[in-house]
Amino acid sequence: MIGLSHRQTEILNLARTTGRVMVDDLVRRFEVSAQTIRKDLNDLVDHRSLTRIHGGAIIASGVENLAYEARRFVAADEKRAIGIAAAAQIPNGSSLFINVGTTTEEVASALTAHEDLLVITNNLNVAMMLYRHPRIEVIVAGGTVRRSDGAVIGSTAIGLIGQFKVDYAIIGASAIDAEGALLDFDYREVQAAQAIMANARSVMLVADSTKLRRTAAVRIAHISQVQTFVTDAPLPPGLQAICQSKGVLVIEALPGRVEEADELNPEPTAL
Question: Counting CB atoms within 10 angstroms of each CB, which of 2, 91, 146, 147 has the fewest?
Answer without folding.
Answer: 2
